[in-house]
Records
---
Amino acid sequence: MKNIYISMFVLSGLLFAGCADDFLDVNPTESIPVDPALVNSDEGATGFVTAIYNQFLGWEMSSFGWNAVSSIITDDADKGSDPGDAGGDKDIIDALTYNASTPSFESTWNANYAGINRCNQALEMFPKLDKVTPALKTRLVGEAKFMRAFMYFTLVKGYGGVPIVDHLSGVPISEADKQMQLTRKSAAEVYAFIEKDLTDAIENLPVKSAYVGNDKKRVSKGSAYALLAKVNLYQKNWQKVIDNCDKVTGYALVADYADQYKKEGEFGDESIFEIDGIGGTSTPGFGIGNYTVSQAPRGAGGWGWGFNTPTQGLADAYEAGDVRRDATIIFRGSVLYDGTPVPSTVANAMYNYKAYSSKFYNQEFTDTNLRYLRYAEVILMKAEALNELGQTSEAIPLVNLIRSRAKIGNTPFTSQDDIRKAIYKERRLEFAFEHDRWFDLVRTGQAQAAMAADGKTFIVGKHELWPIPTSFLREANGLSQQNPGGY
């Protein structure tokens, strides 16, 4: 029997669901016994990993705060809602006037570390389970390591170097484990840790076609190669981007861009990593908490809170005839694909269509899925890497694949710099409201100009990284320091 201790900053604000939750849902400083015999079965082992997937259904992981720090903060979205409703901190995030005590940055930090804790619990437990089918156990280790890598990738993109918590601490907590939990590592060290987890995941995971039934919703070898390519992209390891993109096989662009955001388009040929929302009227754990309703039309005739609204700049960025515009933006006075009218009396001119649920449009728990990795991104990552290596003529056909699906003509550009700009624009329009825009602006050096065009002041040397939460620094007590820029 093993006592598991989880530090306060790791566990703050958890929302647990899944069949392993009895062993995971504890108070921040509670020490709990876990008997491997209670979960020593295929079902028990799978439950630990299901609990990791379910972390993405949490309000703090994927909903209000996450929309703020990854979307409202950008030139693609405004706070929305009514002028007098700040949404807690959405107004100051929209204006880039946030600080280290802004709640959405703390909730994002805590939620990802809570998910990492779930991964570590699973990885700690699996070697003790001798009645689990060996091939299943191998796969589950791969899934846990993929998702731990994904969460660390979110953290390092947002905050820079962070603590690498790679195992559970004992009771009482040792000085070494305290240092582990409270000392920031460099961004390079975090990236190396992510790459190691993904390399392990690639070895352990099956290809997508090997999954049957409900398991098709789980991550595969292709998921790990795609995420590794994206990690390479952020480090400008261009040849590695190409090599890993080429290993993402068994996927294809779907014919209709809009269909993949509807219920019938879930987990289609383009889906590489997608979180499943089942939906419900009152039961947590079956959908992303308030994800749909918080972004739905507000005001007279509306049914939601109205936050995270598309900007006019985003709407104007689409070329004439680009089908992605009407699949991304709900316009006031329009009729939705299922016949639902959006009255001309709602508060905001535009809303996020990708968050819409036909069945649970005004319910707390939505059946809307989060699409975190799609094959379209593999195509554009490879195009970007080829272009950066001077192989522009090979990049252009890949850009045109994306444009063709969008029902617009081939790119007219041929020079390396023009194709670079074209790729950046295609990324913006292809993945709008899929939580990549802020990180793309920062990594490509576009942030200052893009924010200025949207009426915001991006301070170079400060806003590239989010503030480290004050609550963590207080607990670290000198072991970690704040990011630069006067937070």
Note: The first strand starts at residue 2 and ends at 5.
---
Amino acid sequence: MHIRGLIVLTLVLGLELALTGGAAARHMHLQQLREQQQQAQARVAKGLAGVQLMSPWPVTAHDSGGVLLLSDSPEYVGEYGILYSDVIRGEARIFYYHVNVTDRPGKLAVVLENLGTRRTQVSVERSAMPEPSANYFHVGKETQIGYMRIPQPVGKIPLEAGSRNLLNPLMGVELLEPKELALGMYDIFTTEPVRVTVVFCPAPGNPVDFVQRARILPKDEVALRGTFKGMNRTLRARHSYEPERDGTVYIPIGDDYYDTYKQGIDATDGSRVINYGNYGVLYRLELPTIGSQPVKVMLTPLGGPYAGAVRVEAGRRESRVVHTPAGRLYFGTDTPGDLVPRTGKNAILTKDFELALIGRFKPYRYFALEYSPPGASNLPVLLIMAPGDS
């Protein structure tokens, strides 16, 4: 019997029980229900090796930090112009994702303009900007790997009052060839109001000069650009996870049900926008574990092919970046995403799920993961915790 057959059987038997009157009849049908459920479960266990029941692991969600500037529309850029622009002051993250679909090379750049009356320095606290490529999964994964590396050198970009400068000097020389993807993720801080502009200009041009006369390009149908308050999201487990007691559990990310999409404003036209997938958001998952048994932590994508990385903090001393998946570029082409319910109930983990092992860990009161949805990959994903010997 297939898993769906078991679910349908349970629903049908429950309906029969509800429609049957009398205490004796209800008792008889309840007994039949239990017996038939046990038989069905036995057939499932026999027919599907490695089947595990997964329960949703309860977490609280809290957004914090500065603003996220997301520039991903138009995703496929067919002309030169401004892709997104807004003014920031304080803490901000810039996440851009654009493909050159013209027939000639250009430059994809982020231009900073000091709108204040005093000289300032824009601090780059954390960043990743891999070389553009037509291999989109490679670019997305390399961005996550680079961004997750800690510590990172802090850079300073000087800006006189009223002046402009590039976020990264490479943006003034590096070319984005036709069909290539440019992707970057930067955390910055400024004490003065600074206009941030993502621009695509001709190869011979200077982005700093071009931005002064460029027009704002229209959005595509997805309209995935805007400014979103609270660029970080903390998911904190309500309880410490104990493998022996809790079994296999899962936490969905980027599904807009358990984990809601952020809403913001497109500063170029004032329209309300949604960050489908929460791209550019940095998640911190705080997942204390207890007991004597090791914990196995895995990730599986439900939306399609996926290539990324996470940073693991196990205890106060261990911190490392783990590729998802390790040993190959991407995975997730065959995972059956429709087997995970959207009702807060149990799900079934079968051999059909493609899993990336993040690691096996002894129990830690302090255990955390840093995660961000990688560009070019599909969401949602499930973070899964299971007994380490399973």
Note: Residues 1-30, 36-49 have pLDDT under 50 and may be disordered.
---
Amino acid sequence: MKHRIVVLGAGYAGANAAGRLARRLHPADTEITLVNADAEFVERVRLHQLATGQDLKVRKLADVFANTGVRVRVARVAAVDAERKIVSTDDGDIAYDTLVYALGSTAADVPEHAHNIAGKQSALRLRARLEELGAGATVLVVGGGLTGIEAATEIAEARPDLDVSLATRGDLGDWLSEKARQHLRTVFDRLGITVHVHTDGGALDADVTVWTAGFAVHPIAAATTLEVSPSGQIVVDETMRSVSHPDVYAVGDAAFAVGGSGQPLRMSCASGVPTAHLAADAIAARLTGREVPENKIGYSGQCISLGRSDALVQWVTPDDQPKPSALTGKMAVRVKELICRSAAWSVSHPTVMMPSRRRRVTTASAVLESAL
């Protein structure tokens, strides 16, 4: 009987995990199913572009995973029974021996009537609303993190006729180096974006509000018997394996995980892909009786687009602390674009550029994994 691996979610983390598992494991011994609510891969790091009228490349999951050995099942996950090892979806139940949970995150605590860009449909709704606005209309972006900065600059550049502002609890880019903060202030001034700093509960009027003040994970994990953090993320060990259920792995935003430095990883694509690779390699190693890889996940930079013609790259330490140096302007645009394209390419070519040998599952290892 084949070892059944089910991957929930086909974002950057889930898609990479599924592809890497297909490359590592022999199809005669394993059955890999990728479950996703959307039939297409959503390039989440570009949703601020989609919201401002730019069209993104369509990548159908059925085409992406054709001839890889990964079965794509378009369905919405309703529940996970971690004791019976069953996933319930709107298209029926799916049994698993090993589960990779990669359902990601969405915008947190979005007020009524506010927009967000945490998903494709919400970005398209904002796009439609922005198209309705006439010259002089006001747009307020709430949240001064990476998403808020990218949304505000993208909107201001695409629609210079709008009055765009950003509200943040601290100072603009207060986690960045002085060089990066100075460049950020210069770009905001050039684009005419008003910045409201140290806001905490005050009233600001706008025709359209875009909410980017934090992310929340999908609530399904918290409704299971899996051990989760106060934020609802699945608590995992250094190999992305659930500390309460060894047959479950969590990757990307859904995981409460630490990197190679021992510090918690932040919700980001920069965390999602490495955790997916590590989880897939750990699963493959355990099923084939090989050595489990070491967690060496660390950061090198934070890339922030500032519209289509500007950007900045803040160089950071492996535990994500800013270095004094930062890349700005046209060169930063090229680096940011290269990283975005590379992330999308890794999904579009799920079984390329990895060791080609598909290893056989050992009976003893598979039985042990299923029993744990």
Note: The first helix runs from residue 12 to 24.
